[in-house]
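so my prof wants the structure for this chain in the C-alpha cells format not the other one, which i didnt know existed until like an hour ago. anyway here's the sequence
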Amino acid sequence: MPLNRVSIIIVTYKGDEVLTECLASLKTTCGDEPQIVVVDNSPSETTREIVSAYPNAAYVPSPGNPGFAGGNNRGLPFCNRDYILLLNNDTIVKSRQSIERLVEFLERHPLCGVVQGSIILPRANGAAGGCGSFLTPFGFQYARGFGIPLETPGVNVPTKCFSIIGAFMMFPRSILDKTGFLFYDAFQSYYEESDFCHRAWLAGYEVWYVPTPPIEHLCGYTAGMFARTDIMRQHLRNSFFSLKVNLGFASRLAIVSFYRFVIFVHAVAHLLRGDAKTFKADLGMLGDVFRLRKEISMARRNVRRSVSDLKIFRQVLRFPSLSYLGRAVRGNM
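here's what i got, hopefully its the right format
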C-alpha cells in the first residue's frame, strides 16, 4: 500500500539524537512516500539541518515549548494528506506495515476515528508500551498491556478502547470536522490524546487498538527533562479538566466526585509519609482546576455531543481487577 496519503507529525524538544534515528527509520521503511512535519519546540539550526536532509519533511519552529499538544496543533495546518499520524520523536519504525495496517483498518472501519498500533519498550526488555485503555468509574484509566510482554494472551488483539497512546496514533483528518479541533493548547502535555479520544466518542466515532508490527518507543525521553511532580500535577489537572468538560451532568456528578476523593486520599497518604512535594502537587492540581472553572464552563458549552455517556460506557467502561488496583496503589506510593 502506498503511504502518500499519510502525513506524520513529529514534535521534538532538544531531541536531535532520537529525532535523527526516528527520521532515518522512516526513510528506510517508507522512503519519501509519507509527508513528514517536524515541529521543533526548542528551535535550533541543528534540528533544522537534520530535517532538511529529507525531501519529504518540513521543519516548523515552535518557540516557547507549547508541549505535545501545542506542537501537534502547530504542525497540523502544514499537513495535506488524508490521514494524520502522530509519532513521538523517540520512536523507531522498523516496518512500513506498522503504518499501513492503521490506514487499512481506518479504511475498512468507517466508524473508527482514532487508531493505535503496537508499541514495545526497549528499556523494559521489549515489553508492550500500552494497548489502549478503558475508563473506570473512578475517572482514572484501566491500561491494557503496559509493561508486560506483547505476546501475553489477550493483549495483542484488536480492541475497542476509551483511549489510546499519542506516541503512535492515527486518525483521518476529516474527523476534525466533528471533534472541532485536535488538542487544547493549554494542556501542553499529558492526557491530550485521551481528551481527543473522548471527544471522538462523543462525536459518534470509535477508538481502537490494532496489532501491527511493533514500533520501538524509548518512552519518557522528553519527560525525563522535567520534575516528576510537575508532570503528575499537569496530567491530573488535564484529566480533571477533560472529565468535567466531556461528561454529562449525571456522569460528571458521580465520576468526578470519585476522582476528587481519590486525589484527596492520595494527597493525605503522601503527607503522612512525609512526601510534601507530592502532597503539594495534588492540592495544587485541585487549585488549578478551581482557577480554570470559567474555561471549563466555556469548553463544556462547545462540546459536540451526538452519543450519550451511557452508550459510550457500555463499550469502554471497565471495573479494574483487585490485582490491577493493588499494582496501581503500589506504583503511586
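also thought this was worth mentioning. Residues 12 and 102 are 23 Å apart (CA to CA).
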